[in-house]
Input
Amino acid sequence: MTPALQALLRHPGIWRGDRSQLSAPAGIATGHAALDALLPGGGWPRGALTELILRAPGIGEVSLLLPALAALSREPRWIALIAPPHLPYAPALAAAGVDLARLLRVRAGNGADTLWAMEEALRSGACGAVLAWPGAMAERAQRRLQLAAEAGDCAGFWFTPAEQAASTSFAALRLGLAPVAGGLEIRFLKRRGGGEALPLVLDIHALAGPACSRSGPAGLRAVA
Output
């Protein structure tokens, strides 16, 4: 292999199935060592998208992110929740260490508004993380959002119901989430720079703290 080709393959934008954390930039610690060990970069990818595919809503998908959100909320940037299906439950978020003063909730009237808000927030540079519930997304929209995340150096997370998940995704990290006895099962559907991995089961209540069990589904509370 020539030096020029070696240099090209070390570029973080190139995904090689036989490479793992050696070529990945440092990620955002998830708050669980077992999960960090399986993620390229040792955590949630920065400047990139993570797609979380849900077997059912309210299974702990937001609780999974709370340790990282707590750490990011201590930085001088915002955490944006775009079109969440329920009202964020402030006591649970605060109990998990999230600084509520750094949290934004964005209401969107329709799918197009949700995608526009996601892209603007990701690209702005003002957000450390963006969480969004857009439903199914076309590949073109995914590509635009990935470029926006790179431009804004923002960690983007979007939640997709399993029945709406496409066969492919532009996300750097793609995880399937399902409830199981003992916690939340995580399946590694795509890891940029990583190969296959066996499913991992995490005790989300132990990870996020007892306040989440009182907050309703996944740190969000339904309101009438």
